[in-house]
Design a protein that fits this description.
Blueprint: E1 2-7, H1 15-26, H2 39-42, E2 47-51, H3 55-64, E3 68-78, H4 81-90, H5 92-95, E4 104-111, H6 117-125, E5 143-150, E6 169-178, H7 184-187, H8 203-212, E7 220-223, H9 230-237, E8 241-246, H10 249-253, H11 260-267, E9 274-279, E10 293-298, E11 309-311, E12 336-338, H12 341-355, E13 356-369, H13 376-379, E14 386-395, E15 399-408, H14 419-427, H15 439-444
């Protein structure tokens, strides 16, 4: 059966991956038959007509997908109301059971346009041929019939509002369920959180990332760059157990006696699902066996607000070859050096292949330069046993960040990655240079091309 999905006007490229992830989590499929060759253009519009086997599946999606505003049983669409009514008449078998004694109401909504009360009344009266005999109930009807008018733009060429009838498409259906997951954006609002930092991820994106990991009760999820824990709270909220690490323990702890992440997790009632928080460098990790995490979720530091670091000295100086004499009562603080983004991403995928169970997912953000990005940028970080699932852009103009979802398809056991040896082997070959290489430098130079610098 076909259903009309109405989406929030944000993160267009994230919609389909989120739908597919939640349907995979719950073991059902979604049909995109209408968009076989035009899916890239379809996601730019707020409406999609999709196939579901059961109405129950619509409820599951609406309760979990952050970008769904509502789902409707689809009756008709058209480029004019004449086409709409003709198609709706042919769909009589779908709605005739509501004719005798079902209370109902109509809603008329516009996208990119405001519809006057007078015109709404005219539109509703045009459906008089449906002959509904039940009571009109505006507060709690048994059936809500919804008309959506879609306009290309909220303004006419002369700058005024669109006039009646100049819409691009009109849709009609029965409301099945409102999207309830969007209320979680308020629950996890960073401004209301007891502990956060300047790198904390916004609530909507954290929830989208959690959905991409297929977070659910009993799963074990790892964040190797946990920072202030933004993704830990949302994945734990969906029932997963979370383990976090960071090279800088101060980000996790904060200044109070109780670690900041634990305080914020207690605020959301998920502190019991934070397994542990440890301080270490992922390239010198303590994991002695692999294939035990269900997912890895992270937002690696890329140098805009905080730069990535790993253990090691920036440059070994001959006059410092001898180890310094330790001072009494002072802890040893190991030196760190910058961790270039393209190297970090390559290492992250290799680490994920080692740590993930077969079928497990790696979900992370990758910043890219808009003018330089090309599909091979993502392909170059993939390795044997790892397959790209989704690549969704959050566009900021001259640069953007891509939510990358990679799945471990291999069932073989892999040895822990030897980061330095792999990097040396890669650097010795003439390979594709991705747009995210040296991203920090490009960002602070205003993304100027080499001949402009």
């Amino acid at each position: 059966m076909e259903y009309l999905f109405v989406f929030a006007q944000s993160h267009e490229e994230f919609r389909v991956p989120e739908l597919l992830s939640i349907s995979e989590l719950h073991g059902f499929t979604i049909g995109f038959d209408r968009y076989a060759n035009v899916l890239d253009n379809a996601i730019k519009r707020p409406f999609m007509i999709l196939m579901l086997d059961k109405e129950e599946h619509a409820h599951i999606l609406a309760q979990r997908c952050i970008l769904i505003k509502s789902v409707h049983e689809f009756y008709a669409e058209g480029a004019s109301y004449e086409m709409l009514h003709e198609q709706n008449s042919r769909a009589r078998l779908q709605w005739e059971r509501y004719i005798p004694d079902t209370s109902f109401k109509f809603l008329v909504l516009g996208y990119n346009s405001t519809i006057s009360q007078r015109r709404q009344r005219q539109i509703i009266e045009s459906f008089a041929y449906m002959d509904f005999l039940g009571k009109i109930e505006m507060k709690n009807p048994e059936v809500t019939l919804t008309v959506f008018e879609e306009y290309e733009s909220g303004r006419a060429p002369d700058g005024g509002l669109h006039k009646d009838g100049k819409f691009t498409q009109v849709y009609f259906g029965r409301l099945v369920v409102h999207g309830t997951a969007r209320s979680l954006m308020g629950t996890f609002d960073v401004k209301k959180r007891q502990y956060f930092g300047n790198t904390s991820m916004e609530a909507e994106v954290s929830l989208l990332m959690a959905n991409q990991t297929l977070a659910s009760p009993g799963k074990l999820i790892y964040d190797p760059f946990i920072g202030t824990g933004s993704m830990a709270y949302t994945t734990a909220y969906f029932g997963a157990f979370v383990y976090g690490s960071d090279i800088d323990g101060r980000q996790m702890r904060g200044k109070d006696k109780t670690p900041g992440i634990i305080r914020a997790a207690s605020q959301y009632g998920v502190a019991s699902r934070i397994v542990d928080l440890c301080t270490f460098d992922v390239t010198n990790h303590p994991w002695r066996c692999g294939s035990f995490f269900d997912a890895i979720i992270t937002d690696p530091p890329y140098g805009v607000r905080a730069g990535a670091k790993r253990l090691g000295r920036k440059k070994i100086r001959e006059d410092r070859l001898q180890s310094a004499i330790p001072r009494p009562n002072e802890p040893y603080i190991p030196p760190t050096k910058p961790y270039e983004l393209s190297q970090l991403v390559t290492d992250l995928v290799l680490l994920a292949r080692y740590l993930l169970r077969p079928g497990g997912r790696l979900v992370f953000f990758l910043p890219t330069v808009s003018a330089e990005y090309a599909p091979p940028d993502i392909n170059t970080v993939l390795c044997e046993g790892m397959e790209l699932v989704a690549n969704s852009l959050q566009d900021f103009g001259s640069w953007g960040r891509r939510l990358i979802t990679i799945k471990k398809t291999a069932h073989a056991e892999y040895l822990p990655p030897s980061f330095d040896s792999i990097r040396e082997a890669e650097e010795s070959r003439d390979t594709h240079v991705p747009a995210h290489k040296d991203f920090r430098e490009k960002y602070f130079q205003g993304f100027k091309r080499d001949n402009e610098r």
